[in-house]
Amino acid sequence: MAVSVLRGNIFKDESAGPLVALAVSALFALIALMSGFATSWESGLRDARDGLRETSAPSDIVIVEVDGRSLQQLPRWPWPRGLYADAVTELNRLGADQIAFDLEFSAHSDPDQDLQFARALEDLDKKVILPTFRQVNQSADGPVVSEALPIEILREHAFLASVNVIPEADGRILQYPYGTVTDNLPRPSLATMLAGDAGKMGEAFPIDQAIAPASFDRIAFVDLINGDVAREKIAGKQILIGATAVELGDRYPTSLFGVQPGVVIQAQAAETLSKGRIRADVGQHAPALACFALLLWACLSKRWRSHALLISVGLAGTVLVAALTLDQLSLAYVQVATAFVLLGAFAAVSRVIRLLHNLQAARLTDPASGLPNRWSMENAAEESEMPAFAVARITDTDQIEALASGDALADIDRAIAHRLSVLTSDLQVYRIERGLFAWFVNEQAAGELDPHFSSAANLLNLPIEHAGQKLKLKPVFGFSQSSLADAVAASEFAQRKGQQWSAAHDEMGKEAQYKQYIIAELDAALEDGSISVHYQPKLALASDTISGAECLVRWNSASQGFISPADFIPILEERGETGRLTLFVLKDAIAKASAMHEAGMPVNLAVNLSVQLLADAPFIDEAIALIGQLPQSPKPLLTIEVTESAPNNDPEIAKAVLSRLREAGVRISIDDYGTGNATLNYLKEFPANEVKLDQSFVRNLSTVQSDLLMVRSTIELAHALSFQVVAEGVEDAETLEILRAAGCDYIQGWHIGKPVPWADFECELRKAKAESQQRAAAKTA
C-alpha cells in the first residue's frame, strides 16, 4: 500500500514531490543535528567565515614578549625579578597607560629581587595587573580547587586578574571567561581588566578569531631593558608582558592562525572586548526552522509549489548573504549548518524525485511518437473500475515506413492518435507498439461496437498528408473487456480473417497457446531433428544445369504433425526468435556446401535472413564467423536472401550489414522483389548481386500480359544495373521458356524440383553430373 501511494503521489502526481522532499530533508537535518555532524560542520564554516573577516587593524595593546632572543641575551631563566622591576620602571617612564603581566609570580625568588620588584611596583603611577590561575588538583578526598596567587609582597601594589583559558574538546581556544570564582571569591579575567569590561562572572565570550596576531605591536623584552624602545611605541598604550619563546611553552591552537602563545590569546580576548567584537550567537535551530517554514509554505502553495526547488536555492543564497553580512558588521554569528543541510537535502531529493518522475514519464511514453505507451495504458487500467480496451491495428505499416521515417513517421503516428481522440471524446490514445493504437471504451460504446469501429475506420480511412502525398491507412480493430493483450490478439485475429474488427474469444486463446507451443518447442525441435532443412533446386538457364538450391525449413512435430513454415515463421518473427533457427539453417548450408566443394561439385546454397536480424549485431557477428568456415572458391558457395523491404527499415544499417556479409564472401539476393515499394534504381545503392522476382508475377506469365511486360522490363533494367535475376514459382515448361526468352538468369519452382531432403538433392546433383559427363564423352567420341 505504501509503495502504491508513494508511486502515485510522486510519479503520477508531481505536486506531491516537494512535500516528500521536504519531509525527507527535514529528517536529514534532524539526523545531522542530533549526530553532531551539523556542529562539526559548523565549526569548519565558522573558521572559513572568520577567515573572510580577518583584520590586522592596529591595536592599543602592545606585547612585550619574552622571546628567544631575550632568553639568549639576558641572564639564565628564570630571570631575577630585578629585571621586571627595570621593565616596569622603563614602561612607566615611556608613558604606558596600563601594564599587565601574563607571567607567574606565585613562588618566592631571591628576597632582594622580590623586594626590588615590589618597590618598583609601588613607585608606578598606576597599579600593574598581575596574574592568578585557578587550578584543580586531585587528592585522596577528591578534587581540590585552589588559586595560584602572586607572592604577598607583590600583590600589595597590584591588581589581580585570572589568566585561565577554556580549551575546546580539540584543544583550540575559542572561548574566554569574564572571570573565575574560587571559594566564592570572584576574580575578573586579564582581558576584562584591560578592556574595562567586567562582564558576568562565571560566563565566557567568544574570542573574535578574525583578529590577527599581527594586529599587536611586539617589543622584545631585551630591547626594553636595554632602553632601545621609542616613547611613541609605549605612550598611552596597554602593555601586556608574556612569554612567546617556544622553550617556555604556554601555547595553544587557534582556528585561523595555528598555535599561538598564551599572551597573544590574552591580547585577542582583550581586543575582542575593547572593540566590541563580541557577536550574538544565533543557534542552529532558528535559521533551519525559518527555512523549513518558508519551504513548507511554498510546497503547500499551488502557485509556488513548482518553484520550490528554485526557492530552496534562493533561500540558501539569502541565508549565506545575510550570515556573511552580519559577520562583517560583527553583529551576530548565525549558525547555518543545519539550515544548509535542510536546503541541500531538499534540493538533492527534489532533483532525485524529478529525475524519477522523468524516468517514469519516459517509461510511460513511446519514444518514437511521444505518445503514452502500453505501460501507461496498463497503469491507467489499474485505476479504472471497469476498463474495456479497443485496439486499432494499421495493417499497412510496412508500406508507410517505406515512405516515411524518423520525425515524419512520428507525425503520422500523432495524426492517427489525434483522429482517434475524436472518437474517444478526447480521452487518451496510446501507441502501444509499432502500428498499434489503443484506447479505453466506455460502457455505451462497448454495447455498440459495430458503429464504434465503423466510425474509427472512417476516421482513419481519410488520407493523411505527407511530403505532398496522401497516405490512406488500412486499419482493423480488436476489442476486449478483460485485457489489453486480448484486444491486441483480437485485432490480429481480425487481420488474419479479413474482418473489420473482432472481439476477444476462446479461439484466440487456442491460437495464443499454439504460439506459446511454437516458441517453447523450438529448441527441442532443432535438437531432435523435428526441424530439418529441405533444398529446392535452382536452374541456371545459361547452362541448363542445377547450380544451387534454396534452403527451406520443415517442421514435423510428433504432437502437432506437419507445421507449415507459413504458420511458425511469422510467430518466430513476431517474438524475435528467428535468430536460432537461421543459425541452424546457416550451419547446415555451410556444412553441405563445403562437402560438395571438397567432392568437386560446388553448389551455391541460399539462406533466408529475416529483416529483424539485420539490426541484431551479435547475430551478424556469429553469422560472419560461420561464413568464414567456407572453403575458398572461385564462385560464392552461399547466398543470403533478404526481402525487398530490408533496405527500407533502416537504410544505413541494412547497407552496412549487407556490405559486411558480401565482403565475407557471400552473394546478396533481394527476395520477393515486386511486392514492396522499392525500385531497382533505389536498390542499386545496396551491395546486392541479384533480385528474385516474386512468384505472384511469375505464376501467370503465360496468361496475364501486364505481368509479362513487368517481368521483361524488370529483367532488362536489372541487367542494365548489373543485377542477375532469379524467378521463383515456375510451375510449367511454358513459363520456363518465356523466362528464358526474356533473359532471366535462374529459375526456381516445382517444374524444376520440389523442396527435398539433402540426400535426395545430392543424388539428383550427382545424377545430373554423371549425365553431363556422359554427354561430354559422347561429343568427344
Short recap of the structure:
With 781 residues, this protein is α/β, with parallel strands linked by helices. Helices cover 48% and strands 21% of the residues.
DSSP helical segment count: 30
Radius of gyration: 49 Å
Stretches where pLDDT falls below 50 for ≥5 residues?
Answer: 1-11
Class derived from helix and strand content: alpha/beta
Mean pLDDT: 86
Distance between the termini: 95 Å
Major β-sheet profile = 8 strands, mixed, barrel
Key features of this structure:
single chain; 781 residues; alpha/beta; 8-stranded mixed β-barrel; 5-stranded mixed beta sheet; 32 strands; disordered N terminus
Write up this protein.
The chain has 781 residues and is α/β, with parallel strands linked by helices. The chain has 30 helices and 32 strands. The strands form nine sheets. The chain has an eight-stranded mixed beta barrel with strand order 24-25-27-28-29-30-31-32, surrounded by five helices. The longest helix is centred in the middle third of the chain and has 27 residues, at 337-363. It is elongated, with a radius of gyration of 49 Å. Mean pLDDT is 86; it is low at 1-11.
